[in-house]
Each structure stands twice: as structure tokens, then as C-alpha cells.
Design goal:
Blueprint (H helix, E strand, L loop, with lengths): L1 E5 L8 E6 L2 E4 L11 H6 L1 H12 L5 E2 L15 E5 L3 H6 L9 E5 L4 E2 L3 E6 L6 E2 L2 E7 L8 H4 L3 E8 L2 E2 H4 L15 E2 L4 E3 L10 E6 L2 E7 L7 H11 L7 E3 L21 E6 L3 E10 L1
Parallel strand pairs: 5-17, 7-13, 8-19
Antiparallel strand pairs: 1-2, 1-14, 2-3, 3-4, 5-6, 9-12, 10-11, 10-17, 11-14, 15-16, 15-18, 18-19
Length: 287
């Protein structure tokens, strides 16, 4: 199944919809107590998911076209990001892939939806880059799990653009701030349940910036697969339901190009993963 958060006309509050082809069904209209947000659906476990699936068959349909999207996740317990998880990306940034994953936290204010406009002041950075990433959403608590069992804890997958201010990234010892400006973590537009993605290491991942293809790779090129990342993270802390893990970006970043290519005022960048969705962000830089 495929879900999204949309904001109906005349409202500021996102609502969860089930996406069926080119139509949507508002989940909170299906039955009394039905979830309004993805996190509530995840907390309800398999029983609630199956009830939503069964009820949706008779739900009122609305066209998908023209919907205004919110972030695919609204209030995750934490957003964990993995750096240097594709060898080509590590090399182009002049950074070394360590013997263990590089892990940092993204701030919740950075979340944004598909087709949103991300705005930042020129005085903060003129070296803002894109990074297409596979987002993994945890469904059941994961503590000290083996890689072989790790994917059993995945609820679904989404698309993430890990937007990064490169000048700040290289001037500070940690990476959270440079990637956590308001709107620097667009997600979505959809969350696809795990049963729809039998192998998260067999997905085409790509970026198009102002009509030009910048990243074109496969998740098979990850240094550490999703199962290994979940296992590693779960050894030190319980991964709670709703946790979003952004799993790293392939080669093709604008920072490494000659000449360098960064997000400009009025740029449009789309990152996508075949079978999950394509996520567009519009950029404005304030003088």
C-alpha cells in the first residue's frame, strides 16, 4: 500500500490518505477512530493496517492530481541520517568511509513536503547541495537485532532529499546543522509499505536539477545495506516505531563537479526512487 499526507484546500492540517492509482482515500473517514497521521497508523500495528486496507475498498475517492503534500512523516521520534554510505559519494567529497557508519541526527524543523519551496538566506550559504536518499521507516521496536532479522522491523520506505550547506559542513565538526535548515529534509511524497519493496538494495535512485540528470545510481551500491544499518543502530539504542532513517546518497553531488553545481535561486530539484516516488523541491535564496 501507498500512503501520503495531504493538506486539503482551506486547511493547514495534514491528513493521511491511502493512494490508489490516481485516486486517494482519506483514512480518517474510513471508520471511527481511524488514524489521521502515518505515525498513528504505524502505532496501530498490522491489525490497524489491515482494517484500513479492508475499509478503503468502499471509501470515498478523491483525485490525486492537484493535492498539496505535507512531509511523508510528520513527527518521527528521531530522524537518523547515514553519511558516506556510497563509495562514489565519499570519494567525490574527499572523505573516507569509516569502518563503522557515519551517523548524525536531522532536526524536525527541516522536514518538508513534495512540491514545497525551501528558502534560506544567501548570508548563511551559497553552497547548498542536493542528495537523493532512500528513507526507511521503522514499524516495530528494534533493539539489538541481527542483520538477518532487521528488515522485519521496517514498516515502509520513502524518498528523502538530504539538502546540505556544504560550506558549513566542512567548517564544523558535526553535520546536523548544515543539513537541518528549515525545509532541508523534504520527504515523500509517498510512503510505500515494506511488502511493496521486496529488496531495498535493488532500487534505481536519481536526481534531476533544473532539467539535468545529476545522480543516476542504484541502492545496490550502498557500502552497508539497509539491514546492516538497522542492526548497527539498534545495538546502542532502541529504534522506536516511526523512526526515519535516511540511508546515504550516491555519487553525483554538485559539490564535486567542475565547475561546482549548487542549488540556485529558483532552482527546481527532483530526487526519485523507482517504485517509491519522485520528490520535487523549489528553491528560493533571500538576499
Amino acid at each position: 500500500m501507498r500512503f501520503a499526507h495531504v493538506v486539503p484546500p482551506g486547511s493547514d492540517a495534514p491528513r493521511l490518505v491511502l493512494v490508489d492509482g490516481d485516486e486517494t482515500v482519506f483514512v480518517d473517514e474510513l471508520f471511527d477512530g481511524a488514524p489521521r497521521a502515518l505515525e498513528q497508523l504505524i502505532d496501530g500495528g498490522d491489525e490497524l493496517l489491515e482494517r484500513v486496507r479492508a475499509s478503503a475498498a468502499s471509501g470515498v475517492r478523491h483525485p490525486l492530481e492537484g493535492q498539496r503534500y505535507a512531509s511523508a512523516v510528520l513527527s518521527p521520534p528521531v530522524i537518523l541520517a547515514i553519511g558516506l554510505n556510497y563509495a562514489a559519494h565519499s570519494s567525490e567529497l574527499g572523505l573516507k568511509t569509516d569502518s563503522t557508519p557515519t551517523v548524525f541526527v536531522l532536526w524536525p524543523n527541516s522536514l518538508a513536503g513534495h512540491d514545497d519551496t525551501t528558502i534560506w538566506p544567501r548570508s548563511l550559504s551559497e553552497s547548498v547541495d542536493y542528495e537523493a536518499e532512500l528513507g526507511v521507516i521503522i514499524g516495530t521496536p528494534a533493539k539489538d537485532v541481527a542483520p538477518e532479522a532487521a528488515l522485519d522491523h521496517v514498516w515502509g520506505y520513502t524518498v528523502v532529499n538530504d539538502i546540505t550547506a556544504r560550506d558549513i559542513q566542512y567548517s564544523e565538526a558535526q553535520w546536523s546543522r548544515c543539513k537541518s535548515f528549515d525545509g532541508f529534509t523534504p520527504t515523500g511524497p509517498f510512503v510505500v509499505t515494506a511488502d511493496e519493496v521486496p529488496d531495498p538494495q535493488a532500487l534505481h535512485i536519481w536526481t534531476v536539477l533544473d532539467g539535468r540528470t545529476m545522480q543516476d545510481a542504484t541502492t545496490a551500491q550502498m557500502v552497508r545495506p539497509v539491514s546492516t544499518l538497522i542492526s548497527h543502530l539498534s545495538k546502542s539504542a532502541t529504534l522506536l516505531p516511526g523512526t526515519l532513517i535516511s540511508t546515504g546518497s550516491p555519487g553525483g553531488a554538485g559539490y564535486s563537479r567542475d565547475p561546482q553545481v549548487f542549488l540556485r535561486d529558483r532552482s527546481t530539484v527532483t530526487v526519485g526512487i523507482d517504485g517509491i516516488g519522485s520528490l520535487t523541491t523549489h528553491c528560493r535564496i533571500l538576499d
